[in-house]
Design a protein that fits this description.
With 133 residues, the protein is α+β, with helices and mostly antiparallel strands. The protein has one domain: 60s Ribosomal Protein L30, Chain: A (2-Layer Sandwich). The chain contains 2 helices and 6 strands, in the order βββαβαββ. The longest helix is centred in the middle third of the chain and has 19 residues.
């Protein structure tokens, strides 16, 4: 059983960066989703606010999960990277995460960072999930 590489055409092409949007290990049944950001196919950020970028990043993450055969309810772990101090953005981010992942209540790590994929990128979200049963 080979590792499956997941690259939905609705998400930007990760090939120039040497990445897949997600990988599936059929032996373990785990799905690893690359950090998702608010990028279009031209690698451009679509929103200015942290909350709007987080909403877009979550939607991209859900797209990758679905293409891999998983869903928000199968997420085991989320990592949320935020440019700057996490505490400055948690009030805006928490409702978005609860809306999309609240029932699953995955393990969650929030990390404030100095930089992300582009100067305009404020949020990046990655996940580990199970394949849907």
């Amino acid at each position: 059983m080979d590792i499956r590489r997941i690259n939905p055409t609705t998400l930007y092409d990760g090939a120039p960066f040497g990445l897949s949007q997600a990988t599936v290990d059929p032996r373990s049944g785990l799905v690893f989703v690359s950090g998702q950001v608010d990028w279009d196919h031209r690698l451009q950020v679509g929103h200015a606010s942290c909350a709007a970028q987080a909403e877009s990043a979550v939607k991209n993450l859900l797209t990758a999960l679905e293409a891999a055969g998983s869903s928000a309810h199968q997420v085991l772990q989320l990592r949320v990277y935020v440019r700057g101090e996490l505490a400055d953005h948690i009030d805006a981010l928490a409702p978005i995460l609860v809306r999309h992942f609240g029932a699953a209540r995955p393990a969650l790590t929030g990390i404030g960072v100095a930089s992300l994929a582009s100067q305009e990128t404020l949020v990046e979200i990655e996940a580990v999930a199970r394949l849907a049963a």
